[in-house]
């Protein structure tokens, strides 16, 4: 009976794929099977010294484990996943992809020894405008798979940093310096913390947040981003055609 009602609900209120916009079938959630099969995966799973680890090494931040699930490319239809939860008020998309990301690495022991999840915080002003923190929703998706607690308010974001896209590396560092403050060191001191971000673009925000967390002392750090900018992917792993041209 309940199944029948759900099917009827699906007919009256159709749902659409967040990537291609096609109508979802009864058993599909957020994304159609065809788009799921073609997700732009980073394939960092099980790879040490991957791009995310290297981004943190830039400022001598050591991580226990680091991963990003998807490649982020502004020209790809898959970037609409991020628009849905960042600009179009669909936080359930962030939770869904948080679950997918966690399921992808759960069996290889990625979460072993981790005590808690800390999402990269938003400023109070941006949180008020959006109504939720998208990194916190991704963290809730991870929690649903792993059972790890999500701890907010450990680090707070004091100010909004201006957009990073046109800045040099040094300007980016200055732009995010001191935007985070460690508010509750006792919550992370002596713990293994998983820091979660939505999209790692320049990496400056993630590094600044990691620095603030590490101020607590005796913190082991792992990092997860739902996506990493394809700019970084080209930098470390050149596309086959680019590599061929360079030979
Ligand atoms: Zn689709």
Number of spatially distinct domains: 2
Low-confidence stretches: 237-247
Q: In angstroms, what separates the terminal alpha carbons?
A: 64 Å
Identify the overall geometry.
Answer: globular
How are helices and strands ordered from N to C?
HHHEHHEHHEHEEHEHH
Sheet-strand content, in percent, reads 5-15%
Bound molecules: zinc ion
* Average of the residue pLDDT scores: 87
Question: Care to count the β-strands?
Answer: 6
Assembly type? single chain
Radius of gyration: 19 Å
**Biggest β-sheet description:** 4 strands, parallel
Spatial arrangement of strands, main beta sheet: 1-6-5-2
Structural class: alpha/beta
The CATH level-2 architecture of the largest domain is identified as 3-Layer(aba) Sandwich
The CATH class of the largest domain: Alpha Beta
Find the CATH topology of the largest domain.
Rossmann fold
Number of helices: 11
Helix content estimate: 40-55%
Could you list some keywords that capture this structure?
4-stranded parallel β-sheet; globular; Rossmann fold; 11 helices; alpha/beta; disordered C terminus; 40% helix; binds zinc ion; 2 domains; 247 residues; two-stranded antiparallel sheet
Q: How would you portray this structure in words?
A:
The protein has two domains: about 10-40, no CATH class; about 40-245, Rossmann fold. The N and C termini lie far apart (about 65 Å). It is globular, with a radius of gyration of 19 Å. It is built from eleven helices and six strands. The model is unreliable at about 235-245 (pLDDT under 50). The protein is an alpha/beta fold. Helix 9 links the parallel strand 5 (about 190-200) and strand 6. The strands form two sheets. The protein has a four-stranded parallel β-sheet, sandwiched between helices. A two-stranded antiparallel sheet has the order 3-4. Bound molecules: zinc ion. Zinc ion (ZN) binds next to helix 2. The site of zinc ion has 8 residues, from helix 2.
């Amino acid at each position: 009976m309940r199944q029948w009602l759900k099917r009827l609900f699906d007919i009256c209120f159709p749902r659409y794929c967040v990537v291609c916009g096609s109508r979802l079938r009864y058993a599909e959630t957020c994304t159609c099977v065809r788009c799921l099969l073609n997700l732009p995966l980073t394939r960092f799973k099980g790879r040490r010294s991957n791009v995310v680890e290297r981004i943190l090494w830039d400022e001598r931040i050591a991580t226990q484990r680091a991963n990003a699930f998807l490649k982020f490319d502004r020209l790809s239809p898959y970037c609409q996943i991020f628009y849905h939860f960042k600009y179009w008020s669909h936080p359930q998309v962030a939770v869904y992809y948080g679950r997918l990301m966690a399921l992808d690495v759960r069996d290889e022991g990625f979460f072993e020894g981790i005590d808690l999840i800390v999402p990269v915080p938003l400023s109070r002003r941006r949180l008020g405008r959006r109504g939720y923190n998208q990194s916190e929703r991704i963290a809730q998706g991870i929690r649903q798979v792993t059972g790890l607690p999500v701890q907010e308010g450990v680090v707070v974001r004091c100010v909004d940093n201006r957009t990073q896209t046109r800045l040099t590396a040094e300007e980016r560092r200055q732009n995010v310096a001191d935007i985070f403050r460690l508010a509750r060191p006792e919550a992370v001191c002596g713990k293994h913390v998983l820091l979660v971000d939505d999209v790692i673009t320049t990496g400056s925000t993630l590094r600044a947040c990691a620095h603030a967390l590490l101020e607590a002392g005796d913190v082991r750090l792992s990092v997860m981003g739902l996506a990493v900018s394809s700019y970084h992917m080209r930098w470390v792993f050149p596309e086959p055609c680019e590599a061929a041209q360079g030979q």
